[in-house]
Design goal:
This protein has two domains: 146 residues, Rossmann fold; 55 residues, Orthogonal Bundle (Arc Repressor Mutant, subunit A), CATH 1.10.10.10. It has a six-stranded parallel beta sheet, with helices on both faces. The longest helix is centred in the C-terminal third of the chain and has 15 residues. It is α/β, with parallel strands linked by helices. The chain has eleven helices and six strands.
């Protein structure tokens, strides 16, 4: 029988070890790689092509939602399970639009992780129990499809730049991280602030926190 190969993405090594321990207790499952941020997760997904990705939502450099968007653009059928310390209907909306197939709370990982991975491996959705009713209502009403059709306020690259700016990176540091010129970063920064109608980095940071791009 073919092994189920799993990629874990979380910026805390102790969390990755705990998740690996739970997952590898199941016969036939193997953790093929561990990523320490969202950008690393995208790179490892491309390199290893795992069956399942377990993605922490709050990570530096590139958060879990943005990493999921990039992965699902590359492979729309990718099976990504979002792991979060917090739940909210808005967060689940964003998660569904990103292309993820499941959502569980970190506090419930010991109880729900194996069931969630089994569901995704079988091509089914899985959501933490506190949000399952909301998700099913949205699916029945076509809400997630409508959300997916809405044009994003920021482009994928602009969201990357926004996160790095909100984390306090300089234009030069962002240029190096994204392999683009400083002038291109400055152009993105100008467009972002215009779109968001903010005139300072503090305003951009508030937007990033309110929209789950970074943690407060």
């Amino acid at each position: 029988m073919k092994a189920t190969r799993i990629l874990i993405a979380d910026d805390h090594a102790v969390v990755r070890r705990g998740l690996r321990s739970i997952l590898e207790s199941r016969p036939g499952w193997e953790v093929c790689a561990e990523a320490f941020n969202g950008r690393h997760a995208v790179e490892l997904f491309t390199a290893h092509q795992p069956d399942i990705v377990i993605m922490d939502i709050n990570m530096p450099e590139l958060n879990g939602l943005e990493a999921t968007r990039q992965i699902c653009r590359t492979l729309p059928k990718a099976q990504v399970l979002i792991l979060s310390a917090h739940d909210s209907e808005q967060l689940v909306r964003e998660m569904l639009v990103s292309g993820a197939r499941g959502f569980i709370l970190k506090a419930d990982a010991g109880e729900d992780l194996i069931a969630a991975v089994e569901a995704l491996a079988a091509g089914r959705l899985f959501f933490t129990s506190s949000l399952s009713d909301f998700v099913m209502r949205g699916l029945r009403n076509g809400e997630t499809a409508a959300l997916a059709d809405l044009p994003p306020r920021l482009s994928p690259r602009e969201r990357e730049v926004t996160q790095l700016l909100a984390e306090g990176r300089t234009n030069k540091e962002i240029a190096t991280a994204l392999d683009i010129s400083v002038k291109t970063v400055e152009t993105h920064r100008k467009h972002i602030m215009g779109k968001l109608e903010v005139d300072s980095i503090s305003g951009l940071v508030r937007y990033a926190i309110q929209n789950g791009i970074i943690q407060s």
